[in-house]
Amino acid sequence: MELTAAASFASAWGTPTAAAAIILTAVVLGLTSAAAIQWPPRRERVLPNPLKTGLISRLPDGEELGSLVYQPDQFPGARDVETPYGSMRVYEFGPEDGHKVLLIHGISTSCVTLGRLAHGLVDRGCRVMLFDLFGRGFSDGVADLPHDARLYISQILLALASSPLPWTGSAPGLRVVGYSLGGGIAVHLANILPHLVSSLVLLAPAGLIRPETFGAVSRFIFSSGFVPERLVAVLTRRRLRQPIASSRRQRRAAAASPDAVGAAAAIAAEASDPPPGETASPLERRVLLYVQWMAEHHAGFVPAFMSCIRHAPLTGQHESWAKLAGRRAGSTVVMLAEADEIIDAEEYTREALPLVGGEDRVVWTVLPGGHDFVMTHAEDILRVLDGAWSVNA
């Protein structure tokens, strides 16, 4: 679900002729828009989350708020942490003396996608921490900095420091679970602070996705500089607001025409339909509806989404992955989904497994499900962790 929204963005164009027309129009608009209008405006540094704008409190009980999959009291131990970048939402719960596990979600949703894993880990005696990346859920958006690994690692350290318990520098170390974009961020965290991360778990991780997955049209729109930011934002928001049925049609079209796969659909995979032959669960459908709700009501969501496509560790991270080979054997766990429409399990196994040292150094597993297997196959993931962590406890 996390990485499929980027792929439907260009699939919405349809034919190559339509794509060419859009590119030509975008170039003309870009050249005539006076050095490109900045969006959001430069004067804005923090884009308030829905709690700050009062939107949540204004919704009548039982109306839209009650239907949202992600509520302000979704998990125990909620706190809003003020940072130089704006406020962020953090949750921390589980036995205080349990192994500490930090979970990092993906690009197009909030930490709600990792709820089943979090509760399963707490049931196993762990102390867990989840947080909303800037621009998602109940965290503010950051408008004046690129949404890259540096920003998100700073956010992680601020989240850890906000706890009354010691999360850094204490034995037996921190277990980090990163999903999709969160996996790409976790790789950088483990490389920068190897003494901090005792176990690195990567679930359908970004980082080695081929750029062509996002499509030529989307790469041009997001990266050329010719398309005004306001226009890119309008197109992105429109795509993220589309209903489930439209998402299904566009994913079929993308499968038939790989060059039309674009940034917005690829990233919405975190909240998309299940693989062929499987039925979408109520949770999957509600998470997709929540993505649409964020696109409409969270001022920081679309800018964060756009910035991540440009700056986040989604592609070309081979050098960072190669550094993982120096970690202690068994301390890195990689789980892929066999029907993942974005992270090709066979391709990752062929390309990434040798980079990280091979199966002698890494626990490498392919599980059932699609890109959103953190929701649909959480128990399978937890069973793998039971084995990996019992050996390396």
From TrEMBL:
<dbReference type="GO" id="GO:0016787">
    <property type="term" value="F:hydrolase activity"/>
</dbReference>
<dbReference type="Pfam" id="PF12146">
    <property type="entry name" value="Hydrolase_4"/>
</dbReference>
<dbReference type="InterPro" id="IPR029058">
    <property type="entry name" value="AB_hydrolase_fold"/>
</dbReference>
<feature type="domain" description="Serine aminopeptidase S33">
    <location>
        <begin position="100"/>
        <end position="258"/>
    </location>
</feature>
<dbReference type="InterPro" id="IPR050266">
    <property type="entry name" value="AB_hydrolase_sf"/>
</dbReference>
<protein>
    <submittedName>
        <fullName>Serine hydrolase-like protein</fullName>
    </submittedName>
</protein>
<dbReference type="InterPro" id="IPR022742">
    <property type="entry name" value="Hydrolase_4"/>
</dbReference>
<dbReference type="GO" id="GO:0016020">
    <property type="term" value="C:membrane"/>
</dbReference>
<keyword id="KW-0378">Hydrolase</keyword>
<comment type="similarity">
    <text>Belongs to the AB hydrolase superfamily.</text>
</comment>
<dbReference type="InterPro" id="IPR000073">
    <property type="entry name" value="AB_hydrolase_1"/>
</dbReference>
